[in-house]
Amino acid sequence: xxxxxxxxxxxxxxxxxxxxxxxxxxxxxxxxxxxxxxxxxxxxxxxxxxxxxxxxxxxxxxxxxxxxxxxxxxxxxxxxxxxxxxxxxxxxxxxxxxxxxxxxxxxxxxxxxxxxxxxxxxxxxxxxxxxxxxxxxxxxxxxxxxxxxxxxxxxxxxxxxxxxxxxxxxxxxxxxxxxxxxxxxxxxxxxxxxxxxxxxxxxxxxxxxxxxxxxxxxxxxxxxxxxxxxxxxxxxxxxxxxxxxxxxxxxxxxxxxxxxxxxxxxxxxxxxxxxxxxxxxxxxxxxxxxxxxxxxxxxxxxxxxxxxxxxxxxxxxxxxxxxxxxxxxxxxxxxxxxxxxxxxxxxxxxxxxxxxxxxxxxxxxxxxxxxxxxxxxxxxxxxxxxxxxxxxxxxxxxxxxxxxxxxxxxxxxxxxxxxxxxxxx
Length: 425
Fold this sequence. Notes:
This protein has 23 helices and no strands. By secondary structure, it is mainly α.
């Protein structure tokens, strides 16, 4: 049955270029295998419903709702103002403020797309108004947006945790240090760029300006504190935290008086649409994962890998190269849902920590969102900045190096992802 599955996957890969939705192609591939292998087709709706009936997966629509509410509440303007007051007076200050703003926003949105399309709009406009060229503003915005899904809460880590049966709480905590390292590495890069290009800096703020920026952003800044405090004290689970976060985002919007009652139906509709696409991906991936398991392709592939790659580092190197290539051509969540059944079993057999492996997978695919030709964050940033896609790609390429450095460090040093979760066990 392995050969049958390989043939179906080959046809599926070619069919991807037809332009059909990827969840349709995954579902058809899984159903085709069941039909050819003589498996009762009742398994198709069974796998769909079983995948949807997941308590941890309930967090996904809640975090999507939270991100939509935050984008509608004007919180992005206040976050960027606070970040500018903190680091805007450094050399190339608005570049640093862009990165710090993404770190703060990451504690609320958990999405690179939301970061680029939300706070990114404010960041690019502010940088252009201050005299920065559009390419630099767009490149830093795109690179810093990749921090969003690494610092918790993170939608990709929820999907990974559900699919790989790994603790979502541990994945959230495991992303804290790598996410902060990404910000630090980008700031080091920006510092060198600021000196070379003689980038401008904002005036040193006075105490009154600092206080006003802090008090204005305080309700938004408290969102990560509420989430982490509740999860770490055991008051609510990571899944329940998503509902708390969505409610908190609504309260913040009302507090700022930026969300009106007539806005709520639109925000809910956006959430439903996004959740619908996400659930279609999850359900069709569950069917394809079942087909892969029944064909024994992952088991045979895993056996071949463990027989030829006896070291953790060798396997992680291979996975990193594979995912960086895949990330150039495929959207992150779709890639995870397809590859997790294949890549996770060998990793566990080699003794790689599940939290470390999850963070490495997500980090690889987030880097993929800013690599051409299909980097979705690049497309969004180019549209926001009103620049040609090729110019944004060229300007972003140098910022891949600090992200690669963090990826290597995360792969080589497991403690970067395991130390923080261990503190709370």
